[in-house]
Each structure stands twice: as C-alpha cells, then as structure tokens.
Amino acid sequence: MRLAFILGEIASGLRRNLAMVVSVILVTFVSLTFVGAAGMLQLQINQMKGYWYDRVQVAIFLCGPGSSAAGCSGGAVTPDQQKSIQALLASPAVAQYVNDYHFESQAEAYQHFKEQFANSPIVDSVTPDQLPSSFRINLKDPEKYQIISETFSSRPGVETVIDQRQLLERLFSVMNGASFVAIVIAAVMIVCAILLIGTTIRLSAFSRRRETGIMRLVGASKLVIQLPFVLEGVIAAVVGAVLASATLWAVARFFLGDVLAKQYPDTAFISPTQALMLSPLLIGLGVILAGTSSMLTLRRYLKV
Amino acid sequence: MIRFDNVTMAYDKKARPALDSVSIEVERGEFAFLVGPSGSGKSTFLRLVLREDRATAGAVFVAGQNVAKLSSWRVPRLRRGIGVVFQDFRLLPQKTVFANVAFAMQVIGKNRSVIRETVPEVLKTVGLEGMGHRMPHELSGGEQQRVAIARAVVNRPGILLADEPTGNLDPTTSQGIMQVLDKINQNGTTVVMATHDDDIVNSMRKRVIELGKGRVVRDEAKALYTSMMPVVPSRRSEQGRLRERVTTPAGLGEEEN
Ligand SMILES: Nc1ncnc2c1ncn2[C@@H]1O[C@H](COP(=O)(O)OP(=O)(O)OP(=O)(O)O)[C@@H](O)[C@H]1O
Ligand SMILES: [Mg+2]
User: Fold this and answer.
1) Which of B106, B110, B117, B119 to mutate to test the interface with A (most CBs of A within 10 A)?
2) Where are the domains of chain A?
3) Which single residue of A72, A192, A267, B59 has CA 20 to 30 Å from A40?
4) Predicted model pTM
C-alpha cells in the first residue's frame, strides 16, 4: 500500500513538474555524456597502448640521395656504411638491448606507405626513392631508446633515429588533453545538473506543500514524505544516464565501428560493448548526484 | 493525557514569551476549551503538544511521554496519536472527500481494504454519509470542516486538537461542528479546542482554560467564556491589573506558581 502510494506520488510529481523534469533529464544526459566521452578516450588509449607497445620500434633511417641532415653530408648511404651499422647492431654492446631487428628497403618502405595511406591521394605523389631505407629495431625494454639513439644518430649514413613510441605518446597526450577537456565540461555541466535538480525538487516540494503539511500532521514518516521527491530527481537522472549510455554506444558502434575503423584499419578501436561497460558508472553517478542534491535541498526546504 | 509542567515558550528572546510558566493537565477523555485574546498563546500551546516546536523551559507530556525528549524519527508516532483541525480546513483541493480522508491512512501505510472500510464509517460519524465522491469546492464551509475532522480522527487518535475550528463558520453551522466534536469526545477522545467563539463555549459548559499574555489566568470546570467570578475583571480592563488580580485571588492557582 505504502509503495503504491509512493509510486503514485512520484508519478503525480513528475507530471506536475514535467518541464523541469525534462530539463533535469537533458542536463544530466549532456553532463554524463561528457563524463562517458572522457571514459571512452581513456579506454581507447589503453586499448592502443596494449596493441601498439609490443609492435612499435625504434627506426634508424638511413640517408637517401636528397637527405639534408648533418650526418648525410656524404650523400646517400653507402653499402659500407650500411654494413658497419648492421655490424654495430649485432655487436654485444648493442645486442643486449635488442630483441630483433630487420632492414626495410626503400621498396618495402614504399609498400608500407601505400598500405597506410591507401585512402589518401598523397600516395600518387610519392615515389620509392623519396622514402628512406631503415633498420627497424624491437627493443627488449622500450625505455632504453636513449642508448640506441646516442649510439647511432651520429654514425655516418644515419639520417635520424626515431622512437615510434614517442610518436604514440604524442598521440596519447592529445587524447589525454581531449579527455581532460571533456572532464572539465562535464564538471561544469554536473554543477548545472546539481543546481537544477535542487531547484526542481524545491519547486516540487513547494507545489506539494499542502500534501506534505498534512502528511506531517497525521504522522507520516520522514521516509514516506521525502522519498517521492528524492526518487523524482533520481528517476530523471537515471533517464539522463541511460540516454548518455545509448549515445556512447552509438558513437562506438557507428562512428568508431563504421567510419573510423574503415579509415584506420590497423587501429584497434573500442567496441560498443566496451562503451556500454561505462553505463553502470554513469547511472551510478547520476543516482548519487540526484540523491545527494535532492536530499540536501529537502533538508532545507521540506519540514518533516 | 496532556500535561504542561512550568512550560515557557519564547520564540524570540527579547519579546515577551508566548507561553510563560504554564502548568496545566488535561485528563484522558476530557473536553477543554482554550480561550483568551489574540496572541495569548493558544496556538502556541497546541504547537507544543504536537511538537511542532520545543518549549524553551519546562516539560510537555503527551500520553506520559516528554515530547521534547522524543528523537525526531519517533515524532511521527506521537502525531499519529493526535488529530488536528484548523480554522482553514486544509483539504486537498484535487482530491475527493473520500480521498482526502483516505490520504491520512495511506501515508501511514494502512492497507486498502481497511481504508475502504473505515473511511465511510468516519464520514458517517461526522455527518457526511454518502458524500465521499464530492470535491471540496462542492461543499459548504461546515461540510469542509467535517471532512477535516473526519481526516483528523480516521486513525483513531487519543487526542483531538482544534484551533478555532468554527472561526470561519456561521453560528448554526458552528453548533453542528460542536456536536460532531462532542460525539468524538463521547467516544473517548480527549479534545482541546482553542476558540474565540463565546456562544459555543457558553452553550457547551465544558472546562475552560483562559490564557492571557501567555499565562493561565483561569481554569474552570463547566465554565462560561467569561468568568462568572467577580474578581476577574472584564476583558477590556488594563492588562497589568488583570494579571495581578487573577493570579492571586482567583484561587485557581494550583496550576500557577
Ligand atoms: N512562529 C512564531 N515565531 C515568532 N513568534 C510567534 C510565532 N508564533 C507565535 N508567535 C508569537 O507568540 C505569541 C502567541 O501567539 P499564538 O499564535 O500562540 O496566539 P493565539 O492565542 O493563538 O492568537 P490567535 O487567537 O490570534 O490565534 C504572539 O505574540 C505571536 O506573535
Ligand atoms: Mg491562534
């Protein structure tokens, strides 16, 4: 009976306050979507780290005919220079850090380049002799990049030594920056949501002050008086959280899954299921937001 | 049933207290009028019984319990034992008569079958048999007050507090309301009614507790609105004199100190 009564009170409260309830839903929806976006970026970073860290290499690019770097003053790398670099790689001093290495010729480099930029018109304007040949080194400990760099970068015939991991780190820091921005926007929106939920509950309590006054007088418990208001806010926030989860799922399914995955076939994007794993977090956050802000409001504005 | 032990209630430290060292006992099953000029503390008295406020000093006992000592989650239980009626009825305008009365049972978790059975009975007691489907705006003031009384007593409280229940009603309608309250009192409910209505007090001949500036100036059984005792000056007289003379020679000072 009491449950049916409370449910009835909630329904009437939601109906009376419809415009406010809709705005609470929208604000929690937007704020939680930003929280979720930050979460998805982090998941994506982890995914890419897991995928790439085993595969990335240190690349020693050798001088080509047109190289302008300091070490390339003698023009393109000579076979002797290339041999001495390879000998150094095999020497015990360097070999202790190296898992394995291989040589990538200009033709192979062109092949990889074509694959990587298959969708881009840039392929047509590049010829194999414009791309440098290189030694690709897989390190035992990627942190030891510095040693390789110091050993090889001043060797004759070496144009430059590049740590691909550093390129990835740069990408990750961009993504981290994006998730930071998302979190800041989310924080502002969450403040909006808290204030709006408070105001909504206050209006709701005001419009039902006759009922609550009588409830108090006839001895209704605090729970029965307050619960409908708290649940009103919580339900609106949960609806917002569900909408946010649906949006994240849609982004993972259609944007990452269909659009980006085609453009970057060698990148592992997070799956829609992974995006949905953020949903309990968002719903929980919505419930906590609405619950605390409505309880604080009621403590001030609803006498029991 | 209700006992005030030297109760002082000061809403505002600087102003005169709304109640000043009031000691009163209302027995179980009694009917008492609370009279006195505006601002004399009648409503304050009722608020203290309901624990809407806590006394500044002294103790208020309801059914043997010191209400100031109740923890806040026990206050609802205290209030379930007390029905309240106001001058302005306070019905819920969107609900029918039946729903208004049923509301008081729903919110304390009574089940539907009990409600369906009890509400018509109570409506009959207050003289509104068969009017359960009406909306409040379709009722006269007297009928609305009967609904309010029905709502106040539907959970069978031991005490009924009425704050000027006839304040908005004409004399004939008021008499009808008094009959209802009397009937409820006959059934064993303690009734305390604050009023300005001298005709009603005079016709009922019940106990009268008169307050003046927060003090009990008269407490008389089977009494009239104004005291028959010569020592009590007319209500027009100067207030300082009134307090002096009634507290001493009226001889009703067992409650005073
Ligand atoms: N909530 C409050 N805050 C401050 N002062 C109050 C409050 N309620 C009552 N008072 C003061 O307490 C005194 C007694 O008020 P109370 O309402 O008890 O009088 P009353 O006898 O019921 O008057 P009336 O016959 O007009 O209803 C008054 O001086 C009033 O101004
Ligand atoms: Mg009053």
Assistant:
1) B106
2) 2-52+169-301, 58-163
3) A192
4) 0.75
